[in-house]
Amino acid sequence: MRVVIADDETLLREGLARLLEQAGLQVVGKAATADELVRRVELTRPDVAIVDIKMPPTHTDEGLVAAERIRDSHPEVGVLVLSHYVESRYAMRLLEDHPERSGYLLKERVSDVAVLVDALQRIHEGECVLDPTIVSRLIGRPREGSPLDELTARELEVLSLMAEGHSNEGICKTLFLSPKTVETHVRHILGKLGIGAAPDYHRRVLAVLAYLRG
Amino acid sequence: MRRRAVALGISALGVAVGVFTLDVARDDPGYWFAGTSTLAAASLLAAGWALIGCGLGYWLRRPTTLVGPLLCAAGFAWFLPEWNNPGIGSALAFTIGLCLYAACPPLVGHAVLAYPGGRLGSRFERGAVAAAYVGGVLVLGLLPTLVFDPQGQDCNQCPSNLLAVADNGELGSDLDRIGLYVGIAWALALAALAIRRLSRASVWARAVLAAGAAYLGLVAAWFVASLDRGELSNGTLERRLWLIQAATLVALAGGVAWSWVRSRRARSDVARLVVELAQSPPPGGLRDVLAGTVGDPGLTLAYPIDAPGRLVDAQGHPVELDDRREQTTLIRDGRVVAVLSHAPGLLDDEQLVDEVAAAARLALENERLQAEVQARLEELRASRARIVEAGDSERRRLERDLHDGAQQRLVGLSLSLRLASARLAPDTGAEAVASLDEADVELREAIAELRDLAHGLFPAVLADEGLAAAIEALAEDERVPVQIRGLAEGRFAPQVETAAYTVVAEAARASTAGVVVETRRSGHALLVDVETRDDLGLDLVALRDRVGALDGQLAVERDEDGIVTLHAELPCES
Predict the structure, then answer these.
(1) Contact in structure between A165 and A130 (CB atoms under 8 Å)
(2) Is B380 helix (H, G, I), strand (E, B) or coil?
(3) B158 vs A31, B20, B94, B165, CA distance in Å?
(4) What ipTM does the predicted assembly reach?
(5) How many CB pairs (< 8 A) connect A and B?
(6) Which residues does chain A have within 8 Å of residue B465's beta carbon, measured at their own beta carbons?
(7) In this structure, CATH architecture of domain A2-130
(8) Per-residue model confidence as pLDDT tens digits over B189-214
(9) Which of B358, B386, B414 is the last residue of a domain?
(10) Of A19, A88, A110, the CB nearest to B476
(11) B97 and B213 fall within a common domain
């Protein structure tokens, strides 16, 4: 898989590049600013661009803006945003408009090669990826008399994976369940939460997230 | 007392001159104006006596200004066009008539432009008045008189001209013609300058200026009408113009008298104000009363406070005085009590200013103290806002430093650790690998804790995405049950967003059972309602400070079920 890395911190950029190369990925470009990233993406047409959310000049959300630019101009290029922010609002800005081939992970995942490579792989395959910490915060937030209380422990696990952007197939693999069982769980969950059957995978993720954020 | 005697003498002289003039005019109605009808006779006397009377009155009240004598002189000059009447009988009166028959318009112009203070304003005004005197008294009067010998001009009935030094009828006519042309110019110039003054003048001075401008316009018309004949004359048109002139002069005198009555009333108004103020002082009420009594709606009343040059209004707001307006300083015991900014010339009556200042002393002092208190409160509020803002920006800076510094380093460290463990020899003991893994877990926990700390200091989402997003993010936090009833969309000023967020976040922090939040716009305010059941740990003083620093209000309501509601109202621009 060919990736481009954008981070204004040299140490992180180079370290991440080495780690990914060791894992067998091909790093075809590195950028320190948002503009440089967009140029690199145009030149090298990578499979996925890895973007730090904070970049010069204001170090707030330039990375998100650059990601949106790439999604608009090169929809075939996947984007993984690495962020310090655990608030779902930032992730939703990325996912809401272009859920396919988009991912939002917390920055500290960079040292967890397995999670990182898995996320890149899923993005490359067209899925969307949301950091498990953000999802568990959304599911764990206190609610009064919520239908979530009626879900079984297993159903909650499945719901988390759905919110993280896993497809049914991915859920099967992760939980070692048969496709049929997963389908039954999904149907029950959507029914209990009152979410209508979504026409496709991406809309289902967004519907679940909208429910959890609401 | 002496002045009164002088005034009485001049009045008597005025009466005599009026009666004498009427007598002359009636003797020979063919010449000049006043002899033809009762209306003409009444107009002659009314205009002349009105000017003399109001001029004397003005002089008695304000002896230092020239306006009174000028008006008085204009009144006498009004009679003089009748005196170059051949049938007058007296050589002295005849000569005076010949010299000064056109002196009235320059005198009226001078008086009107100098009204009410006695000073001419601009270079133009001084130039126009000088030109009028030269044109009216010299070119139309004295110079033709010098070359006019009545006997040489076949006027057998005329008394002799005491000033005649030569007899040159042609030169006399030329001078008359030049005088008429020049007269049209200066009369119109004076009228225009009077009209220009109208806009800046007080309500009371406007009547005088308008009447004066009308009179001078009529004089210009009289000059134009006389151009054909080459000298000032008394045809039917000229007689009509003369009658209207008389009416405008009566109006002018009436205007002067009216403003005098006004200023007397101003004194009693101020006295009444003092009584009113003793009962319930309305802030800013003194300015309104003063503006009403002196007739200048744009009057500004400002009070000096501590720093030199710093002025505030009755509400304590800083005031910048308009440089184009005149300023009068009210001083008491060597200390500036108040500064008035007003229309030029409005308060040239020093006596009135003194009386007003004396009558309004208590009221002024009272309002000045109130203004000072208000100004101090305003300063306090501003400094509170500055302190809150300084604290906020410091928190924001710390939050960024944590994110961009410490947290970034920890992430880098975690990455290095991962790279190092990848380089470990394959035969490294399981213990070493396990302790590296353990260090990595610790590091990630440290990063997460640091993130919480940074968010607690200042939520970046508040600055990046706004109040609604920040409250939503607060609701995502698993420690605090926050139920959202409705959120105002859109952005507000950063300090308003921070204050609103702080109210919600603090209430949530102090609560264990949860809070219900609603924010909405209402006119020029952002309303924040937070319902909570347990507010024991809530620092209401700190929240009040924060809301108060933005001129907002924080109300706390407690119902019988023990539900506490915080209502914060924060002023915002849109």
Answers:
(1) yes
(2) helix
(3) 113, 18, 8, 17
(4) 0.89
(5) 95
(6) 89-90
(7) 3-Layer(aba) Sandwich (3.40)
(8) 999 999 988 877 777 788 889 999 99
(9) B386
(10) A88
(11) yes
